[in-house]
Amino acid sequence: MGSIIARLAQESPLFKLVAVVERPDREASIASWDCIHGTNVKDVLPQAPGAVIIDFTSPDATMAVARVNVAYGNPHVIGTTGLTEGQKLELANLAQKAPMFWSPNMSVGINVLLRVLPELVRLLGDQYDLEMVELHHKHKKDAPSGTALRLAECLAEAKGWKLRDVGRYEREGIIGERAHEEIGVQTIRGGDVVGVHTVYCLGPGERLEITHQAHSRENFAQGALRAAGWLAGKKPGRLYSMLDIL
Fold it and tell me: pTM of the prediction?
């Protein structure tokens, strides 16, 4: 994701790539970029005042960058998944001091889906069970995906439930009938699949299936750049999301 975002930024007339940061064991991979580069965000940020940070890393790395950036106040776009509830809360607090945007999925299509799913659930009514399957490449480290969890949260909120109470992430053995207040989220991993999420609304005599398929990682990179352009010039105060852009 980092190299795709950097390349698209360089190719775009709307952006200027001013710096790239990589972990120390991969420093050689960034030497060819025609911009400031380094392995420590503390060294790079003073050389890029006001630049928008785009961060697709790991939860711990993202939190470290966000904490360092408070001293500089650069706008910070985050696409990292797997954040804990505590980390999300800390980001919301740090967003009081620097403009900050977080979305577990930068796809416009997924974020439109987050807008329409609650209305769909409301119109279908109480007789429809809600399930989800997500499919990603074999190298993905977190499960379920951050996008699947956000979609499941959206479904639970539409029902007036808390996902922590109704989420069901595995089924095995003689488990009895499906509980009414339950949302199943199942994970499949393999190959080089960019990302597929399917929401099932299973009712009496029929079902609806809503599927989002990501064809390329450039989809997410373009969404991140769109977020960067939008966040530039925004004031701190809260943790922004793709729904704010839409």
Answer: 0.75
Q: What is the pLDDT of residues 94-133, one digit of tens each?
A: 999 999 999 988 888 898 999 999 999 999 999 999 999 9
Cα separation of 234 and 227, whole Å? Answer: 11
Backbone phi, psi, residue 35, to 5°: -165, 180
Domain extents for the chain?
A: 2-102+218-245, 108-214
Q: What is the largest CA-CA distance in the chain?
A: 62
DSSP string computed for 171-224: --SS--SPPSS-EEEEEEE-TT--EEEEEEEEETTEEEEEEEEE--HHHHHHHH
Q: What would the CATH number be for the domain defined by 108-214?
A: 3.30.360.10
Active site residues: 136, 140
Answer yes or no: are the C-beta atoms of 158 and 117 closer than 8 Å.
yes
Token couple for 6: 């950097």
Give residue 46's identity as a one-letter amino acid code: P
- Side chain identity at 91, as an amino acid letter? L
Tokens of 239: 């943790």
DSSP H helices in the chain = 2-11, 41-44, 59-69, 85-94, 108-124, 146-159, 163-166, 217-231, 242-245
Tell me the CATH number for domain 2-102+218-245. Answer: 3.40.50.720
Task: Decide: 236 and 97 in contact? Cβ < 8 Å.
Answer: yes
CA distance 90 to 93: 5
| Token reading at 170 | 């595995």
The continuous run of DSSP H or E covering 35 comes out as none
